[in-house]
Amino acid sequence: MPVSILINDPYSLFSEFQTVRTTMAVFGKGCLAASFNCVYLYTGELYPTVIRQSGMGLGTMMARVGGIVAPLVQMTADFYIHLPLIIYSLCPILSGITSCFLPETLGVPLPETIQEVESPTHRKKVSVYSEEITLKDGI
């Protein structure tokens, strides 16, 4: 965050580095696109089948709300010139921290009902190699 404030501040020493500013903007846009794709992938694995489409719609709607609010956040520069950069920096940091508390989906079967999601035993991993182990033991 401090680096982006230094580079994007019109009164700073770095304000003449247009290439650096453009590079940071393109990198930020790429990270934004990657996170948008992660929402689609993770949402499909997290919600049970009966409400999966509603969950996908909610994720898409929240992404669109972010796009709608972005010009309004830019208008906060009238109050404090660094406020939009602070808001744009804090939102991904907070969402990244929040995503650390989401459950792991690797090797876990997709939930079919809401009761499966709420049960503590649902998130047990299923080994892909369990059949191979039993076949080797049985021979």
Q: Give the low-confidence spans.
A: none
Shape: elongated
Classify the secondary structure makeup into a structural class: mainly alpha
- Classify the beta-strand content into a percent band: under 5%
Radius of gyration: 22 Å
- Write down the secondary-structure element order: HHHHHH
Largest sheet: none
- Quaternary structure: single chain
Mean pLDDT: 77
DSSP summary, beta strand count: 0
Compute the number of helices.
6
How widely separated are the two ends? 60 Å
Measured as a percent range, the helix fraction is: 55-70%
Overview of the molecule:
It is a single chain. With 139 residues, the protein is an all-alpha fold. It is 65% helix and 0% strand. It has helices at residues 2-8, 18-46, 52-74, 83-99, 114-118, 130-138. It is elongated, with a radius of gyration of 22 Å. The termini are far apart. 2% of the residues are buried.
